[in-house]
């Protein structure tokens, strides 16, 4: 299993991403690829999930 994160991402954001990624893996193993939109990529012979980290405004 590989995870890629942009260079220059700070330690707090890296930790938050790792926590999020772990939760997606747990869901994948429990429910399969469909609930989170995983896609089979023939070129790599495996499943991929793309995401974008966004800071949402305060409510």
Task: Offer a quick outline of the entry.
The protein contains one helix and two strands; from the N terminus they run αββ. The chain is of the alpha+beta class and 59 residues long.
Give a verbal description of the structure.
- Helix content is 36%, strand content 10%.
- The chain has one helix spanning 11-31, and strands spanning 39-41, 46-48.
- The model has no long low-confidence stretch (mean pLDDT 86).
- Strand 1 and strand 2 (46-48) form a beta hairpin.
- The N and C termini lie far apart (35 Å).
- The longest helix is centred in the middle third of the chain and has 21 residues, at 11-31.
- The chain has 59 residues and is of the alpha+beta class.
- It is globular, with a radius of gyration of 13 Å.
- The chain contains one helix and two strands; from the N terminus they run αββ.
- It has a two-stranded antiparallel ribbon with strand order 1-2.
């Amino acid at each position: 299993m590989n995870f890629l994160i942009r260079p220059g991402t700070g330690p707090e954001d890296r930790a938050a991403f790792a926590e999020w990624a772990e939760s997606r893996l747990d869901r994948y193993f429990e429910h399969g690829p469909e609930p989170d939109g995983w896609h089979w990529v023939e070129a790599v012979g495996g499943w991929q999930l793309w995401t974008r980290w966004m800071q949402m405004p305060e409510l």
